[in-house]
Amino acid sequence: MQSVTLSLFRFDRLPARLWVLGQMGLARRVLPRIEGLRFWKLCGSGTDEGFTPRPNWAVWAILGIWVNADAARAGMGCAPFTRWRSRADESMTLYLEPFAARGHWSGARPFAPEGTSDGPIAAMTRATVKPSRVLRFWGRVPDISARVGSDPNVIFKIGIGEVPMLHQVTFSIWPDEDSMAAFARRGPHAEAIRAVREEGWFNEELYARFRIKGATGTWQGRDPLSRITEQEAA
Questions:
Q1: What is the mean pLDDT of residues 164-191?
Q2: What is the CATH number of the domain that holds 91?
Q3: How far is residue 45's CA from residue 164's CA, in Å, rounded to a whole number?
Q4: pTM of the model
């Protein structure tokens, strides 16, 4: 079973932020040599949980797709993961399994979905925005971000990206597939989806859903999956 990791790192101090900027180049040489890592992306973030075009120089991410869970766990003990964690003021890694995916990422279909999910899920969207549609795309994002932020069902959310403004990834965790689908079908998000289809905003797009297998570390001072545990215990 394929395993997917999303590792987030927060660097509060200026020297650490400058350090990680340099590591973005070094990591591109190291990651391809890690055993069991089949696909990876290095990403920055935007301000306000990532859903803006303004860079957040404190938050960085590594997405990894591994041959299986054992390879993913072992890989977390390799550089650059160990180096980044040692310098970060806070970090976490989410462990996921894909159960649905469509579309392409850098010309590839990186996820190998299997099975279904009847519990909490993670949703990921990735798009390459056409330069001619950038202003229209980012004009929609604040409304969508506000709706996500006010939705009582969303457990976790962040926006990251490979290239500012143009290559964007949204990631969110929901208690179940129905609550995620209900959000997608209404309001600014649904309007944006219609505009994407009608006006052709993207050169490339990908949509994926994941089972949540676990997490290590903390984000904003807490276990990102604590709400799931609390809901299951209620």
A1: 76
A2: 3.30.70.100
A3: 8
A4: 0.88
